[in-house]
Design a protein that fits this description.
The protein has eleven helices and 38 strands. By secondary structure, the chain is an alpha+beta fold. Strands 7-6-5-4-3-2-1-8 form an eight-stranded parallel β-sheet.
Length: 670
C-alpha cells in the first residue's frame, strides 16, 4: 500500500451528513446536470490522444514547480521540435493554488509560484501556439496533504475561473470525494465546463475505481484506467496489463488513460523507456511527458521525439492496440491504422532476450506475395514474406509497421539476427555462443557476412563459417563463437555487437546490427548462503527498491523495518513489494532455495501475494495466495542445474495495495 504521498493519498472521509449536504446543495448548479449522452467527436476535442506535459512525475509539489518552469517547458516544446511533433498541452498539476479560497469563494493562485496569476502563464503558453492545462479534484480538497481546495460544490464557479484564465485542459482527480457518486461528480463538472462556452478537454482521473470506460465516454475525453504510475519497470508493466484489455472502449474523443509518461525520470533504462513509449503509443494512450525537460538528456528527447512512433499513437482511425499473443512474457500487440497497415509491437516482458514472432495474417493483413516492413526505431524499410520476428532484448520492444505494398521489392529483404547459448561468462572462462542470420524477406540476401565484437580486451573467435554467398527466404547462416572475458573483469553486464552485412538483388548493400548483452558473473560460494548477502543480477519491485534484511519501505533504499511475519522477527531476508522479481546467477552449481515467506506484519490489512521460485524458465515452487493474517509459510525449491534462479512475488490477483512481501531467512545451497 502506498503510504501518504502528495498525490496518491486518497482520503475518503464519508460522513453521512456531509455527503447528504453535498448531494443536495454543494452540487447545485445554474442548470440541472445533464444525462449520460455520448460525447461526440463532433465537438472537436481530443480526436486523437492528447499530447503534452504534466509536471507531477518530476516535481510533485517542490519549489521547482512555478511559472518559470511552466514557461520554460513551453519554450522547450518549440525549441526542441516537440510542438512540431504534436505535443501541445502544458499542464499544471496539484499545488498551484493557495490552501484557502478568497472571501468570494474563488480559487487563488499561489503568489510565490505564480506571481502574475494563471492567466499570465496561459497567455505566455498560448503565445507559443500551445495550450494550458490545470488540475483540481472532484472532492472537497485535492490529493495533497496541504489540503488545497477541491471543486466539489464549486464546479460552476471554478470552471468559470478556468475558462476566464484561458485554460484548455482540466485534469479532475478523485480525492476527498465524500462518498458522492462518481458519475454525478464528473457529470456536474462536465456540464460546468460546457456552460463556460470554452472548449476544455476533460480528463477524468478517478483511477478506474468505478470502471469509467463503461460510462465516461459521455462525460470526458479521457479517463484514467488505473492507479498512479511510478518510475519503475514493475509499475509500468502492471499498468500496461490493466489497460490492454480495455481496447474496445477507446476511440476518437474518448480514450483510455494509463497515466502519464515516466520517460527520462531515471528509474528505468533507456531500453525500458522505449518500451514504455512504444506500448503507450500502440495503446493509443495520451502522451503526457512527465520529466523536467530542462534537465532531459539527448536520449530522452530522442525517445519522446520519435515521430514515427508518435504517428502510431496519433493515427486518426483511433484504434487501441489489441493483444495477439502473450505467452511467457513474449507479447505481440497490433494496432489497426487508418491506411490499412498494422503497427506491431514485439514486447519482451522477461529478463532475458527472447525471440518474438508473428505473421502478417495473424495481425489482420490480407494475403499478399510480400509486404513492406518499417522498423519505427531504426527508421528503415524492408520486404518480408509475411513473418514479423526479432530477438528482442530483455525489457525491450521492437515496433514495426507492416503493410501490403506493390513496391515491396524496392526494399532489401528483412533479416533476423539471433544469438543462442549462455548469456553469462565467468572471467577467464570461454563461453560458447551461436549467432544466426535468417532471411525473412521474399527476395534473396546475397553476399552475407556476420561479425561479433566484444569490449576491449575480450577475445571473440569464430569456429565456423561467418559468410554465405546467398540466403534464400527462410534460410539461415549459423556461426559458432568462443567468447572470453579476461581474468579480473569486473562483474556486470557488457555489450557485444552483432552485425550482418548483405546485398539485395538490386545491389543495395544493407547492414543490420543488434546489441548482445553478456553478463560477467560468479556462482554463489559452496555451502549455504543468505540470499540477502549475495549480489543479484536484476531486481524489480512494485514500490521502492528491494531491501536487504529489512521490509520494503516503498520509497527510498533503507526506509524499511525489521522483517516481521506472524509475530516472528527475522534478522535476515529480502523485503519486496509486489509485483517483484529478483534474479540470481547460480551457474548450474546450486541445489536448493529455502525461505519463510509471507506478508510483513507492518501491513495490518489488505495484503495479498503469492510467492514463486523459478529455475531458468521453469516454476519449481509456489505458495498460492498468502494474506496479511497468515503466519509465515516455509518454502523449499529444487533449483538443481539452473543457470538463473528467480524469486517472484505476484499481487494475488487483487491489485498491489499493502503487498509487502518478505522472503524471510532466504538461503541458497550450492
Amino acid at each position: 500500500m502506498r503510504r501518504p504521498h502528495a498525490r496518491t493519498i486518497r482520503r475518503r472521509v464519508v460522513g453521512a451528513l456531509a455527503a447528504a449536504l453535498l448531494c443536495t446543495a454543494g452540487l447545485a448548479a445554474p442548470a440541472a446536470a445533464g444525462g449520460t449522452g455520448s460525447a461526440t467527436p463532433g465537438d472537436g476535442l481530443a480526436l486523437t490522444p492528447p499530447m503534452g506535459f504534466n509536471n507531477w512525475n518530476s516535481t510533485h509539489c517542490s519549489a521547482d514547480f512555478d511559472a518559470a518552469m511552466v514557461e520554460g517547458i513551453a519554450d522547450l516544446f518549440v525549441a526542441k521540435g516537440l510542438k512540431a511533433a504534436g505535443y501541445q498541452y502544458v499542464n499544471l498539476d496539484d499545488c498551484w493554488a493557495l490552501p484557502e479560497r478568497d472571501a468570494d469563494g474563488k480559487l487563488v493562485p499561489d503568489p510565490a509560484r505564480f506571481p502574475d496569476g494563471i492567466k499570465a502563464v496561459a497567455d505566455y503558453v498560448h503565445s507559443k501556439g500551445l495550450k494550458l492545462g490545470i488540475y483540481t479534484s472532484a472532492g472537497t480538497k485535492t490529493c495533497n496533504d496541504a489540503g488545497f481546495p477541491g471543486a466539489l460544490g464549486h464546479e460552476y464557479s471554478d470552471a468559470r475561473q478556468f475558462a476566464d484564465w484561458g485554460v484548455d485542459y482540466l485534469k479532475y482527480d478523485n480525492c476527498n470525494n465524500q462518498g458522492v457518486d462518481a458519475k454525478q461528480r464528473y457529470l456536474t463538472m462536465r456540464d460546468a465546463l460546457k456552460a463556460t462556452g470554452r472548449p476544455i478537454v476533460f480528463s477524468i482521473c478517478e483511477w478506474g475505481e468505478n470502471k469509467p470506460w463503461e460510462w465516461a465516454a459521455g462525460v470526458g475525453q479521457l479517463w484514467r484506467t488505473t492507479g498512479d504510475i511510478s518510475d519503475s519497470w514493475g509499475s509500468m508493466v502492471s499498468i500496461l496489463k490493466q489497460n490492454l484489455p480495455l481496447a474496445p472502449y477507446a476511440g476518437p474523443g474518448h480514450w483510455n488513460d494509463p497515466d502519464m509518461l515516466e520517460v527520462g525520470n531515471g528509474g528505468m533504462t533507456d531500453t525500458e523507456y522505449r518500451s514504455h513509449f512504444s506500448m503507450w503509443s500502440v495503446m493509443a494512450a495520451p502522451l503526457l511527458i512527465g520529466t523536467d525537460l530542462r534537465k532531459a538528456s539527448p536520449a530522452t528527447f530522442g525517445i519522446l521525439d520519435n515521430k514515427e512512433v508518435i504517428a502510431v499513437d496519433q493515427d486518426p482511425l483511433g484504434k487501441q492496440g489489441t493483444v495477439v499473443s502473450s505467452e511467457y512474457g513474449r507479447w505481440v500487440v497490433t494496432k489497426e491504422m487508418q491506411d490499412g497497415s498494422r503497427a506491431v509491437a514485439l514486447f519482451n516482458e522477461s529478463d532475458s532476450p527472447q525471440r518474438i514472432a508473428t505473421s502478417a495474417k495473424a495481425v489482420g493483413l490480407p494475403k499478399a506475395p510480400a509486404y513492406t516492413l518499417r522498423d519505427l526505431w531504426q527508421h528503415r524499410s524492408y520486404n518480408t514474406a509475411g513473418t514479423v520476428s526479432a530477438i528482442v532484448p530483455a525489457h525491450g520492444t521492437v515496433l514495426v509497421r507492416i503493410a501490403t505494398d506493390r513496391r515491396w521489392a524496392a526494399n532489401p529483404p528483412a533479416v533476423e539476427l539471433g544469438l543462442n547459448g549462455s548469456q553469462f561468462v565467468e572471467p577467464g572462462q570461454a563461453a560458447a555462443v551461436t549467432t544466426s542470420v535468417t532471411d525473412l524477406g521474399r527476395t534473396t540476401a546475397e553476399k552475407v557476412s556476420v561479425s561479433l565484437t566484444g569490449p576491449e580486451g575480450w577475445t571473440v573467435r569464430a569456429t565456423s563459417p561467418a559468410k554465405a554467398a546467398a540466403l534464400p527466404t527462410g534460410l539461415s547462416l549459423r556461426t559458432s563463437w568462443w567468447v572470453t572475458a579476461p581474468e579480473g573483469t569486473p562483474r556486470g553486464s557488457y555489450d557485444l555487437n552483432l552485425k550482418a552485412s548483405y546485398r539485395s538483388p538490386a545491389g543495395v548493400r544493407t547492414e543490420h546490427a543488434m546489441t548482445v548483452t553478456m553478463t560477467v558473473a560468479d556462482p554463489p560460494p559452496a555451502g549455504s548462503s543468505y540470499l540477502s548477502d549475495l549480489p543479484w543480477l536484476s531486481s524489480s519491485n512494485g514500490w521502492g527498491p528491494v531491501e536487504r534484511d529489512t521490509s520494503n519501505g516503498e520509497y527510498n533504499a533503507g526506509d524499511g523495518h525489521p522483517i516481521t511475519v506472524g509475530g516472528t522477527v527475522y534478522t535476515k531476508g529480502l523485503g519486496t513489494h509486489a509485483p517483484s522479481d529478483i534474479a540470481y546467477y547460480t551457474g548450474k552449481a546450486c541445489q536448493k532455495v529455502t525461505a519463510d515467506v509471507g506478508v510483513d506484519d507492518e501491513e495490518a490489512a489488505d495484503g495479498s501475494v503469492a510467492f514463486e521460485v523459478w529455475a531458468d524458465g521453469t516454476k519449481v515452487a509456489s505458495t498460492g495466495v498468502l494474506t496479511t493474517d497468515m503466519p509465515a509459510r516455509p518454502l523449499t525449491a529444487d533449483v538443481s542445474g539452473a543457470e538463473v534462479v528467480r524469486l517472484v512475488v505476484t499481487d494475488g490477483g487483487n491489485g498491489i495495495t499493502s503487498d509487502h512481501a518478505d522472503w524471510a531467512d532466504a538461503r541458497i545451497t550450492c
